[in-house]
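Predict the 3D structure for this chain.
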Amino acid sequence: MSRIHFVGGEKGGVGKSVVARVLAQWFIDRQVPFAAIDADQSHGVLTRSYAEYTQRVNLANPESADQIMDRALGAERRVLVDLPGQSAMALKKWLSEADILRFASEMEIKFTYWHVLDGGYASVSEFEQALGYFGRSLQHVAVKNLGRGSDFGAFEHSEARRRLDELQGRAIEIPELQSAAMYAIDHGAFSFWAAIHNSEGEAALRPMDRQRVRLWLEHAFAAIDSIADIV
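Done. Predicted structure below.
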């Protein structure tokens, strides 16, 4: 069965592309067939880091967005979609105009939406709105990104958390990676595998930074492993 994974969060700067790249590396390391879709027209981080798996789409163009479904049809694979910030309206429009959720159900394609949070009011509020719109049509995962925030008390006591539990959604934490190591990865457009294993060249990470990335990725993978039944 195919499954489409949307990685989103309306608020910019919550770390959506980091989570998308972690998922891409998880699929690779777990030998899970997947195709990646980069819908972020402004940054394209997934395209830069995992180019051989990734194609770009424009959610505002239905024919372009349809490639998301095209990649899920006809093969048992995961489709990973890195959404841009402020994309909820375009995503809703694409899903509703062609009644894609019903069509996907008929084709036995499932959806998981990874809501990346920084713990702030804006990201929690936007998560609550997304839960209200999508409801039970998607499997929901709240991703508490410790690289963007350390206090998730507002989320834990929010209506969004109550609604997530009601929908039998999941919540995981992605740990923080030292900023210098993350900067070096982004600057070099490395996959996480390359960041850990490449030791030559001016852009290569220092040995201890490679070790930090290795440990960070192990912890992130453990979080994903804990909900592997919906991945």
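Residues 207-225 form the longest helix (19 residues).
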